[in-house]
Amino acid sequence: MKATGPVDTAVRRKQGGFLDGVVRQRSGLICLMAVIAFLSTCIVLQWLRTDLDWRQDPLSAYLKGPYGGWLRMAYYALSMALMLLGAGLYRVLQPQARSAVPAFLLALAGIALALTAISETDLPLLDHDQENQLHRLAALTTFLSVTLAMMVQSWRFHYDEIWRVHVAWALPWAVATFIALWIYAYWHGMPEGLRQKTVISMILLWLGTAASWLRRVQLVRVREGA
């Protein structure tokens, strides 16, 4: 038992170093790839699922039936990306610009997004009504958490001299997305699918843009040996 102690400690340090390296150097790239993969999958399914009306049916309708597994995989990838984006932005920002709030909200959104996909897999311990209730709660948590995180994180950019330049676009777009979410929830003048996918597209644009900014800064720091 005593002999394995130092080995276990070394393994834990190695794992921690690997995860820390991913957050510091690769989180921007991973998140950007996940956003592109999610968006591409959603777009392709609009043509493949001829049984659904892209204007009327929300994205959750594509989680079941043909090609539903591909969309669930895209959900899980984006779920992981949300957590990495929050952690990566926290690490890269200057100390005075850091806030645990957007990182927590993005992590919460990531967990809720995974639950949104899982709730469409015929869970053995839940009946149909309970699955629907779980799906609605998880989806609502995802939308609220990610849009709130977008606004808070955009505002925190102001306190970092490198990221301050991005506030002029990031914050207004985040606020517009938050408003669009409430329009989607309470205004029914447009088909549900079109309303929901508009909000999702706005969220993906912010996430992808923030991930590209993060990737750019991480590349510079890798070259500088930071």
Explain this structure:
The protein is an all-alpha fold and 226 residues long. It is built from six helices and no strands. The protein has helices at 4-48, 68-92, 100-118, 128-156, 167-186, 192-223. Helix 1 (4-48) crosses helix 6, helix 2 crosses helix 6 (192-223) and helix 5 (167-186) packs antiparallel against helix 6 (192-223). The radius of gyration is 19 Å and the shape is globular. The two termini are 38 Å apart. Residues 1-15 have low confidence and may be disordered.
Brief characterization of the structure:
The chain is mainly alpha-helical and 226 residues long. The protein has helices spanning 4-48, 68-92, 100-118, 128-156, 167-186, 192-223.
Cα(first) to Cα(last) distance is 38 Å
Measured as a percent range, the helix fraction is: over 70%
How much of the sequence lies in strands comes to under 5%
Number of extended strands: 0
SSE sequence, one letter per element:
HHHHHH
